[in-house]
Write the C-alpha cells for this entry.
Amino acid sequence: MRLPLVKAETQTDFVAVLERKMIRIRALLNELNRMLDAEYEAGMAYDSKSLKKLILRKQNSVNRFEHLVRAMDEQLSLMAGREMPSARPGTLVNWMTMIPGLTRRQKDVLFPLARDLEQRHLDLMKTARRNGVLFKNALDRMSVASKYINQGKVIVP
C-alpha cells in the first residue's frame, strides 16, 4: 500500500499556530531588548562602529517584529472568523476573548503568554525611550558645542 505524498485535507490547530507565533514574538522582543541595551552601552562609550552595526541589526529585527505582529493579527482574525474591528480592546487578552470556542485549557495557555508579551513590549518601549533620551542629549550637546566653536563665524553652505 502506497501513501499519498500530499494529504487531501490537513487539519490545522489554529491555537497551536497562534501559540508558536506568540512564542516567536516573545523571543524577538528579548532579542530587541538585548540590542537596545548594547546600543545604550555603545552610545555611552561613543562607539560609533558598534552603533552602526547595532542599528542595522535592530532595523532588521524591527522589520521581523512588524511582520510577526501582522501575521498574529491575521491569525486572530482567522480564528475569530471575521476581521477584527479597528477599534479593538486595549490588550491582547481582550482581543483573544473575541475568539469563539476557546477551551479553558487553551485560555490557560494563551492568556498568560499574551500578558507576558504585553509586559515585555512595555519594557521594550521603556528601554527605547531611554535610548532616545540618551541620543537626543548627545545631539543637543554636539549642537551647543558646534555653535560655541562657530560663534561669530559665517558658515556658507
Notes: Residues 104-149 form the longest helix (46 residues). The CA atoms of residues 28 and 65 lie 7 Å apart. The mean pLDDT is 82. The two ends are 81 Å apart (CA to CA).
